C-alpha cells in the first residue's frame, strides 16, 4: 500500500476513534441535557418533548450513526441550547482563538528570545537578574490573577485597553488591537518566560562553544557573533520548545477567553459543557481534531515528498 | 446578513483621563496592590445604603447611540415558544412585546392588547382586543390571525416550553382583525400573568413560515428593537425597528447584549466604559459599585426567593406519586421544623448577601398584591432542641445539603451548616454543578438542596408547581390534599380579595409542612453609567430599554 493511502487510512481511523470518544465522553457527563434545556420550568412534558425533538430517546448507537452521517456532509447539527447551527458558531469562534494564539506566540517569541539573549549576553550582571526575576514571575503568576490586575490597571485606572470583548480586525483594526492587547499579554507571558529560559540556556551553551570562539577570532563584530552564530544555533532548541508548548497555548487560551470574555473556542466549549449542549461540544472537538489530523497528514505527506526515505520506508 | 457590531461611531467613548506620567504610574501601582488583595472584597462590609426601590431615571434622553448591556448568562433560544431562561426574557423585552406587560407597581397592563381582557361563560372564555396599526419587524401586520398562529404554536410545537403553561387553553379563535377569543377547559386566573410573559409574545406568521425550525436565528416580533445578529456566548445585537408602532419614542439606535458571567468582570467593564449597563449585580459588587462616582443604581424587589428544599417523598422523580424516604428529616415534620428554627434569616442576609436582600419566610414576595406580610419566626434553638427530643431522633441528625458551585451558595451552605449545628444537625455540603444538581433535584437524589427561583407575578407561579402533588418542580415530594384543594381554588377564583385569602391559607399550609424553607427575597440590582437615562427595572427584574438613551448634553 502506498504511503499516502496508508497515512490517509490511519487518519480516518484516528478521526473515527476521536468521534467515538467524544460522543461517548460527552454523554458520560453527569446531568441530563433535556433537564438542563428545560431551564427554569422543567415540566415532565417539556422534558419529554425535548428528548423526542433532539432524538435523545434513541439508542446511543443510533444517535452516533445519525451524528456521523450528518457530520460527513458538513452538518454538525444545531445547538440544543441556542437553536443555531453548530458550524456557524464554530466558524465565528475560530478566528478569535487563532488570532489570540498567534499573537501570544509572536509575543512569546519576540519577548522571550530577546530577553533570553540579553540574559545570556549580560550574564552575572543586573540585567540577567532582572530578566530572571521577571521570567520567574511570568511562570508563577496565575493567568486569571494577572488578567484581573491588568484590567484594573490598564482598562480602569488608565483606560487604554478594553476590559473584555472582541471586535474583528476586519471591522475595526484599532478596536481589535485595543481588545486583544491584554489577553495576548496574559496568554503570552507564561510562554515568553519559558522561551526566555530556554533561549538563555541555549545561548550560554552557544557562547562558550568553539565555533563562537572561532568567529570572534576571525574578527567578526560582537553583534554578528551573537545574532549570526550563537542565536542562530540556539533557535533550534527554542523552536523545539515552542512546538512542545503549543498544547499549553491552546489550553491557556481557554482560561484567557473566560477572563476577557472573548468569543473563541475555549469559551464556546466551556459554555457548551456546562449546558450539556452535546452538539456543540462534539462539533468543537471534532472540528479541532479534524484540523489537527489534517494538518499532521499534510505535514507527513510533505515530508514524504521532500524525503523519499519516508514514503519508501526507513530501511530503504 | 452579518452586520457591524461596534466601532468608533456607535460606541460612546470611554472616559479618558490625561494624568501626568508620574500620576499614571502611581495609579497603576496602587491598582496592582489593590488587585493583589481583591480576593478580600467579599468580606467587606456594605459601604453605603441603597435606600428605597429605584426603577428608572427620568432625565430626558437624546436620540442615537448604542447601549451595551452585560448579562449574567447566555440566553438560550431566541424563540418565545422554546425559550426557558430568565436571562432570555430580558432580551425579549426589547424585541418581542407581549399581549400584556407588567408595570412598576407589579400590575398587569395592556401591551399589544388594547385593553384588559373580558371574560364570559363563567371565566371559560377570555376575549382580548388588540392594538391596531401594529407591524412586525418584517413589516407585516400584527392582527388576530397572527396572535392565533402564535398561541397555537406555543400550545402544539414539539419541545414547546409554553405548552404546559397553556394547558387549560383549548382553542383560539380570531374574531375579525383585532379581537381574539380564548376558550379554556376551566376558569384559569393565572392565564393573564402568563400572557404577560413569553406565552403572550406574538411572532410574525410570515417569519414562522419562512424560517420554520430556524426561527431562533431570525426572531421576528413586535418591539422597539429588531434582531440583527447573534454570536453565541458573546453578544446579541438589536437595531432600532422603524416599523415599531411607537418608534418616535425610541431613542437608542442599537442595543447590544453581552454575556459576562463573572460579576467582577461585569463591574470592571462598567468602570472601564466598555459596557453601560450591568445586569444582576451580586450584593458584593453592589457594595463596591456604590462608591463609583460614574455609576447609578437601579433596584427593585424581586418576585423570587432563595430557599431550601427538603426531600420528604420524591423517590421516583418530580411529578411522580411520592414515596417513603426513611430519614429523620423526611419522616418527621418536627425535625424539619427544628431545622427551620435553627436558621437566623437576618444573619444569613447579613453574612451571605451583605444585608442587601430581605429575609422572608414565604413564597409571595413583598411588593405584590398577594403578599401575606407575616413575620418570620425568630431563631429559637431551645425550641428546636425540644422538637428533636420529642421526635426521639439521635443527634446530631445528619443532613446532606446540595448547593450549587457559586460563591454565594457556598457561603449560604456554610452559614446554614454552622447554624444548624447548634441545634443538633450535622450538615455536610455537596457542591454540585448546575445541570447535575438540577437532575439530582428532579430525580429526588438529595436530602436537602438550595433553591433559587426567579419568581412570577401571579402567586400561582411561585407556589403551585412547587407545592402541589405531582407539581413539575415539587422536588421535595410534598403531597397534601388540603394544599392541592387550595391550589385549585386559587386557580379558579377571580375575585382578588377572595383569592388573596386563599393564598394566605395556602402559604400557611405550605410553611407548616416545612418542605420548602423560604429564606431570602432578593433584590434586582442593575448598575448603569450616569450618562444613560430612561432605563427601567421593574419587579420582574427585566431591563426595559424602550425609553432609554444617553442624557442630553452628555457625550
Give an overview of the whole structure.
The complex is a heterodimer of chains A (316) and B (555). Chain A is 78% helix and 0% strand. Chain A has helices spanning 3-28, 33-37, 44-53, 60-72, 86-121, 126-140, 143-157, 173-207, 210-217, 222-259, 265-274, 278-306, 308-312. The longest helix of chain A is centred in the C-terminal third of the chain and has 38 residues, at 222-259. The mean pLDDT of chain A is 83. In chain B, strand 4 (118-120) and strand 5 form a beta hairpin. Chains A and B meet through helix 2, helix 3, helix 5, helix 7 and helix 11 of A and helix 1, helix 6 and helix 13 of B. Chain A: Belongs to the binding-protein-dependent transport system permease family.
List the main descriptive attributes of the protein structure presented here.
heterodimer; A: 316 residues; mainly alpha; B: 555 residues; alpha+beta; 6-stranded mixed β-sheet; 16 helices; 30% helix; disordered N terminus; signal (chain B); SBP_5 (chain B); ABC transporter substrate-binding protein (chain B)
Amino acid at each position: 500500500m502506498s504511503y499516502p493511502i496508508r497515512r490517509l487510512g490511519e487518519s480516518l481511523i484516528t478521526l473515527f476513534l476521536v468521534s467515538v470518544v467524544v460522543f461517548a465522553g460527552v454523554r458520560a457527563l453527569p446531568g441530563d441535557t433535556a433537564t438542563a434545556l428545560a431551564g427554569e420550568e422543567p415540566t415532565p412534558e417539556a422534558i419529554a418533548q425535548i428528548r423526542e425533538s433532539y432524538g435523545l430517546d434513541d439508542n446511543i448507537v443510533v444517535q452516533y450513526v445519525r451524528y456521523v452521517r450528518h457530520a460527513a456532509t458538513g452538518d454538525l447539527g444545531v445547538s440544543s441550547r441556542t437553536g443555531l447551527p453548530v458550524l456557524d458558531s464554530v466558524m465565528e469562534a475560530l478566528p478569535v482563538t487563532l488570532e489570540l494564539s498567534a499573537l501570544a506566540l509572536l509575543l512569546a517569541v519576540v519577548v522571550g528570545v530577546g530577553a533570553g539573549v540579553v540574559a545570556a549576553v549580560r550574564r552575572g550582571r543586573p540585567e540577567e537578574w532582572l530578566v530572571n526575576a521577571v521570567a520567574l514571575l511570568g511562570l508563577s503568576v496565575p493567568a486569571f490573577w494577572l488578567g484581573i490586575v491588568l484590567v484594573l490597571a490598564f482598562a480602569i485606572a488608565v483606560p487604554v485597553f478594553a476590559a473584555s470583548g472582541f471586535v474583528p480586525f476586519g471591522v475595526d483594526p484599532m478596536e481589535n488591537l485595543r481588545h486583544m492587547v491584554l489577553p495576548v499579554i496574559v496568554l503570552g507571558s507564561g510562554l515568553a518566560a519559558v522561551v526566555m529560559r530556554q533561549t538563555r540556556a541555549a545561548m550560554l551553551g552557544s557562547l562558550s562553544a568553539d565555533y563562537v570562539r572561532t568567529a570572534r577570532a576571525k574578527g567578526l563584530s560582537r553583534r554578528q557573533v551573537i545574532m549570526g552564530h550563537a542565536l542562530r544555533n540556539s533557535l533550534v532548541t527554542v523552536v523545539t520548545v515552542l512546538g512542545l508548548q503549543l498544547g499549553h497555548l491552546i489550553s491557556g487560551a481557554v482560561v484567557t477567553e473566560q477572563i476577557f470574555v472573548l468569543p473563541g473556542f475555549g469559551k464556546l466549549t466551556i459554555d457548551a459543557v456546562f449546558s450539556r449542549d452535546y452538539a456543540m461540544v462534539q462539533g468543537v472537538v471534532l472540528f479541532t481534531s479534524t484540523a489537527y489530523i489534517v494538518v499532521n497528514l499534510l505535514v507527513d505527506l510533505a515530508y514524504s515528498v521532500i524525503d523519499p526515505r519516508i514514503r519508501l520506508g526507513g530501511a530503504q | 446578513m452579518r452586520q457591524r457590531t461596534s466601532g468608533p461611531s456607535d460606541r460612546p467613548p470611554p472616559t479618558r483621563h490625561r494624568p501626568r506620567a508620574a500620576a499614571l504610574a502611581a495609579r497603576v501601582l496602587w491598582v496592582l496592590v489593590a488587585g493583589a488583595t481583591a480576593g478580600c472584597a467579599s468580606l467587606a462590609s456594605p459601604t453605603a445604603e441603597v435606600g428605597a426601590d429605584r426603577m428608572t431615571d427620568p432625565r430626558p434622553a437624546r436620540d442615537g447611540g448604542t447601549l451595551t448591556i452585560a448579562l449574567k448568562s447566555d440566553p438560550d433560544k431566541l424563540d418565545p415558544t422554546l425559550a426557558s431562561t430568565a436571562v432570555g426574557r430580558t432580551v425579549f423585552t426589547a424585541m418581542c412585546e407581549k399581549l400584556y406587560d407588567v408595570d412598576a407597581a407589579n400590575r398587569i397592563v395592556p401591551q399589544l392588547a388594547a385593553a384588559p381582557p373580558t371574560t364570559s361563560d363563567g371565566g371559560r372564555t377570555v376575549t382580548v382586543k388588540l392594538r391596531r396599526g401594529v407591524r412586525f419587524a418584517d413589516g407585516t401586520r400584527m392582527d388576530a390571525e397572527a396572535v392565533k398562529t402564535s398561541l397555537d404554536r406555543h400550545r402544539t410545537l414539539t419541545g414547546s416550553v409554553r405548552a404546559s403553561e397553556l394547558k387549560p387553553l383549548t382553542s383560539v379563535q380570531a374574531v375579525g382583525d383585532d379581537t381574539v377569543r380564548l376558550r379554556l377547559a376551566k376558569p384559569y386566573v393565572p392565564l393573564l400573568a402568563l400572557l404577560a410573559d413569553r406565552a403572550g409574545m406574538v411572532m410574525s406568521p410570515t417569519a414562522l413560515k419562512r424560517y420554520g425550525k430556524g426561527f431562533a436565528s431570525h426572531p421576528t416580533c413586535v418591539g422597539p428593537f429588531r434582531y440583527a445578529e447573534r454570536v453565541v456566548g458573546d453578544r446579541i445585537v438589536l437595531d432600532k425597528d422603524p416599523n415599531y408602532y411607537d418608534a418616535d419614542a425610541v431613542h437608542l439606535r442599537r442595543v447590544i447584549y453581552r454575556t459576562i458571567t463573572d460579576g467582577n468582570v461585569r463591574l470592571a467593564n462598567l468602570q472601564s466604559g466598555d459596557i453601560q449597563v450591568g445586569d444582576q449585580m451580586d450584593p458584593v459588587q453592589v457594595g463596591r459599585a456604590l462608591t463609583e462616582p460614574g455609576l447609578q443604581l437601579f433596584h427593585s424587589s424581586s418576585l423570587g426567593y432563595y430557599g431550601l428544599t427538603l426531600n420528604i417523598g420524591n423517590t421516583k422523580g418530580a411529578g411522580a406519586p411520592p414515596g417513603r424516604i426513611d430519614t429523620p428529616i423526611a419522616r418527621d415534620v418536627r425535625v424539619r421544623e427544628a431545622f427551620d428554627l435553627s436558621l437566623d434569616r437576618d444573619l444569613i442576609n447579613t453574612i451571605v448577601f451583605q444585608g442587601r436582600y430581605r429575609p422572608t419566610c414565604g413564597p409571595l414576595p413583598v411588593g405584590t398584591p398577594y403578599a401575606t406580610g407575616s413575620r418570620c419566626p425568630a431563631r429559637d434553638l431551645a425550641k428546636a432542641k425540644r422538637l428533636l427530643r420529642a421526635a426521639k431522633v439521635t443527634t446530631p441528625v445528619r443532613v446532606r445539603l446540595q448547593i450549587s458551585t457559586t460563591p454565594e451558595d457556598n457561603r449560604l451552605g456554610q452559614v446554614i451548616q454552622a447554624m444548624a449545628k447548634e441545634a443538633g444537625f450535622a450538615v455536610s455540603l455537596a457542591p454540585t454543578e448546575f445541570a447535575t444538581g438540577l437532575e439530582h433535584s428532579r430525580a429526588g437524589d438529595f436530602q436537602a438542596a438550595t433553591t433559587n427561583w426567579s419568581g412570577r407575578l401571579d402567586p400561582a407561579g411561585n407556589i403551585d408547581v412547587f407545592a402541589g402533588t405531582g407539581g413539575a418542580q415539587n422536588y421535595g415530594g410534598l403531597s397534601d390534599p388540603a394544599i392541592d384543594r387550595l391550589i385549585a381554588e386559587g386557580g379558579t377564583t377571580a375575585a382578588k380579595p377572595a383569592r388573596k385569602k386563599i393564598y394566605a391559607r395556602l402559604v400557611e399550609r405550605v410553611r407548616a409542612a416545612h418542605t420548602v424553607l423560604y429564606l431570602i427575597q432578593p433584590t434586582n440590582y442593575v448598575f448603569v453609567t450616569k450618562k444613560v437615562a430612561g432605563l427601567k427595572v421593574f419587579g420582574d427584574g427585566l431591563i426595559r430599554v424602550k425609553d432609554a438613551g444617553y442624557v442630553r448634553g452628555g457625550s
